[in-house]
Each structure stands twice: as C-alpha cells, then as structure tokens.
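Postdoc handover notes: sequence design on the structure in folder B. Input tokens:
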C-alpha cells in the first residue's frame, strides 16, 4: 500500500511567500503589527487585532527545507480557515483564535486551559453530545432520518 501523501508535502512555495500570504490574510480582519519567526525548532506568527494579541506556534519535526515549506503551508491553511470563519460570521475573533490569544503575563490561553481541561475530564466520562443526554432517535431502518 502506498504511503498517504501529507498536506503540502513537496511544495515549492517558499516560507517567505507563505508568510506574505498570511500577512495579507491577517489584513482582511484589520490585523496589524504582524511578525513571524522561522526558527529551527518551531515557526511562529504573531499579530494584533480586535484589541488582542495572537501568537500561533507550530513545531518543526526537523529542520529540513522541505519540512519548513510544508509547515508554513499548514500555517497558511490554519490562518485562512480562522479568518474565513470570522469574515463569514461563523465565529467571533476570540473564538476563532482562543487557544492562541496572549494573556497579560505573556503566555497563551491554550497553555493555561489544557491542564485545566485534562484535570476536569480526568477519570470522568465525556458529556453527551445530545442535549438532554439521550441517544439519537433513529428513523425507520435504524437510520438517523429527521
């Protein structure tokens, strides 16, 4: 069986071009003070918008140029999805970028929330996805027709 190709694997798009694309996307939601870091261990995008500061960091599994280009394309895809959700009214800014919102102490919300989330669910079952906790009513033939 052939190995499944990863998103943007083998892309020829340079990190600089991806960064420029992200900066343009951030401009669509009136973001400013855009900056990036292109380190050997991670890449980072930071900007300000809606009276908030956002910092998104993606880890680099290795420092090869092909991996770097691929990870920058992942960042473009992620930011483009968030910006589109905001523009289309699907999410507000805070909800779209919640894990990446910088706190007054310089950390990001996701780093604070993850341990609390793990503790909240430790040894407990997941809540029901259905309001009221009951199973989905099945239609004729066992399907979920409504």
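Designed sequence:
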């Amino acid at each position: 069986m052939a190995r499944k190709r990863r998103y943007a694997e083998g892309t020829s798009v340079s990190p600089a071009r991806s960064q420029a694309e992200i900066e343009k996307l951030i401009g669509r939601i009136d973001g400013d003070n855009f900056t990036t870091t292109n380190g050997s261990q991670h890449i980072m995008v930071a900007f300000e918008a809606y009276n908030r500061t956002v910092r998104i960091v993606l880890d680099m599994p290795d420092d090869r140029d092909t991996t770097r280009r691929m990870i920058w394309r992942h960042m473009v895809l992620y930011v483009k999805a968030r910006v589109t959700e905001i523009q289309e009214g699907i999410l507000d800014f805070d909800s779209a970028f919640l894990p990446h919102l910088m706190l007054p102490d310089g950390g990001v919300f996701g780093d604070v929330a993850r341990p609390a989330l793990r503790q909240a669910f430790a040894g407990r079952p997941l809540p029901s996805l259905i309001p009221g906790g009951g199973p989905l009513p099945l239609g004729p033939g066992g399907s979920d027709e409504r």
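Context for whoever picks this up: The longest helix spans residues 65-87. Don't rerun without checking with the PI first.
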